[in-house]
Amino acid sequence: MFLFRLMNFIIGYITITIRGEASEKFINMAAARGIFLWDIARPGEQTMRANVRLNAVRPLRHIARRTRCRFHITRRVGLPFLWMRLARRKALAFGAVLFVLGLYLLSSFVWTIEVTGNSRVPTKEILSVASAAGLNRGVPKWRLDCPAVERALKANLPAISWTGVYVRGTRVTIEVVEKTIPEEKNQSPAHIVAIKAGVIKEVLVFSGHAAVKEGDTVVPGQILISGIIPPLQEQKPEQPGTETQGERPVPRQPTYVHAAGIVRARVWYEGYGEALLVETGKRFTGRQVTRVCMKIKGREIILAGPQKIPFLHYQTETSVKKPPPWRNLRLPVEIVISKYREVENYRLVRNRAEARRLAGEGALHAVQKQLPHGARIVHKQLDELVVKEPESLVRVKAFVESLEEIGTEQPFTPGEESQNQAPALPSQP
User: For the whole model, what pTM was predicted?
Assistant: First the structure.
């Protein structure tokens, strides 16, 4: 369709209006002689309108005489007519050539410079180094040495590990990657506390004092690994010449550390799902068509795709693309891409086993959304919820047991009441 319109535009075509009692005979005789007519319409009882190529106008005169019809030209479209207009307006053609040359000349210079990827290094500093290397607004693109600018940026800015200079039209983009500075490890005192309730399965202490053991039931906020290491007790050495009266412990101060370790626990989750026994709605059939239009000042010209949508019910997805603005000039042209997807009504009847399976999958999917990254499911159970009155749907509840890490850091200040942890619940059998 697009090639057909393009070919007609290059060759040139006209729109004619046919008047007479035998206008249908006029169309039939033209088709019989191999004259192609398209977009045929009947605006009146004895009037017809059609498009025809420019080289077929002379044969149509003989057909008009034989059918006693008359036709006149109402519209002229194509390159031949544009060329005739330009030939009559030489000043306009000369101005158009100068305009194109001016655009080409102006597009050979750099007008915009942007910097991306920097967060710590100031943009002004990057632009200053690039300017010293020859990258400035208004510089001709053939004089710009992008590798030299990249070398200058890496040599003069130690905080940058990589840089790239790209020329896109009249815009130059400087992309930089800054060096990653390793963060200092936090050594302030902190506990490892529980973020959710569960039964302890494994405790691995890297630093600190274990406050729970395997089999303990914990609640959110309870200390799992304490950052306070209790002091050890030493025996006081005996002095010579004194009698031994027993061992007397010498108290020591506790040690405050940044607790670290892994605490895994068994955690339980619940999820709910349901499925209809009789489901109705709309769904996509898989058929779709795409239409591409060019919109100029509110007028749409179809470049590709059908003129009439072949679906009775459909959903439309539209995207609009506009040419990038050049300085303060915005062209009133946009490309509209519309995708039409056919939809149909459906009615699906399920048996109870299939509905229970779908409801179970929905319940497990609801549980999966609650599970943190790295959690491992060790047991799952699906129970159908039965009600007294029969319903048109099946309800299923999922119970899932997972093994996951439940510890998180909680800083504290030495000397404050940091041992106010939640009491441990009795262990589950």
Answer: 0.47
